[in-house]
Amino acid sequence: MNFPEDQILELKSIAPDLSVAQDGGYTYIRIDNLQLPDHCQPNVVNALLCPSQRDGYASSLFFSAHIAGLPNPRNWNRINVRILGENWYAISWGVTPGYRLAELLLIHLSALR
Q1: How many whole angstroms separate alpha carbon 83 and alpha carbon 75?
Q2: Which residue of 19, 53, 61, 100 has the smallest Cβ count within 10 Å?
Q3: Distance between CA atoms of 113 and 105, rounded to whole angstroms?
Q4: Angle subtended by helix axes 5-14 and 101-109, to nearest 10
């Protein structure tokens, strides 16, 4: 899957350290050193944005670590999911399809607020 260049540039304005990778038939945008809100522990992680349907979700944001310190309890229903040779964690967070990549990232990150 190729992403539109304007959307990649838009996403880089939020998360400059990114790359595209494929695994298991899915295309991911890997974001290294993603800054999370101050209350999150850790507050810098790597992340994988999967903008296509996977595991019953229209899109997903996987984190390299389980995030603690959230003001509202979240359902971490995907734990130690093996992608690109690493373990990842994701919250049960539904996002309707049709957003640009940067919007999609920000909506997924809103689960941490």
Answers
A1: 20
A2: 19
A3: 13
A4: 30
Read off the tokens for 59: 């899109």
Element (H, E) at 89: strand 86-90
7 in Cβ contact with 100 (< 8 Å): yes
Domain positions in the chain: 5-112
Residue 107 Cα distances to 47, 49, 99, angstroms? 14, 11, 9
What are 56-72's pLDDT values in tens digits? 999 999 999 999 999 99
Read off φ and ψ for residue 11, nearest 5 degrees. Answer: -65, -40
